[in-house]
Amino acid sequence: MENLNKENRYIKAKERVDVLKKFYANLWTYIMVISALALINYLTNGFRYMWFLWAAFGWGIGVLFHAIGTFNLNPFFGKGWEEKKIKQFMQEEEGTKKWK
After folding, report:
1. 19 three-class SS
2. What is the pLDDT of residues 14-48, one digit of tens each?
3. 21, 46, 69, 72: least CB-packed within 10 angstroms?
4. Rounded to an integer, what distance in angstroms lies between the CA atom of residue 41 and that of residue 29?
5. From the CB of residue 66, how many other CB atoms can be counted at a distance below 10 Å?
6. Predicted TM-score of the model (pTM)
7. What's the angle, vertex CA 21, arms to CA 12 and CA 81, rounded to 5?
8. Are 79 and 72 in contact (CB under 8 A)?
């Protein structure tokens, strides 16, 4: 039983690391691409019209939502919300099976 618990914790930790890795890769790519677009924008028109900000804003919204999901910053579905719901449904299921 203890080995199973240890293995479950390892699997959860590995999944968490994968999620963090994907977020940081997305953030790094965002920073590099937006920087390159800003440089191109500057070299072509000297920031008379900063068109790269449209891409930064659009992609930035995506990065923001990715961060909310990665770091469990959602105010409606917080850190323990999913686990609480799973336990609740399991208890309800167990309660209905007793009477069958």
Report:
1. helix
2. 999 999 999 999 999 999 999 999 999 999 999 99
3. 46
4. 18
5. 16
6. 0.74
7. 45
8. yes
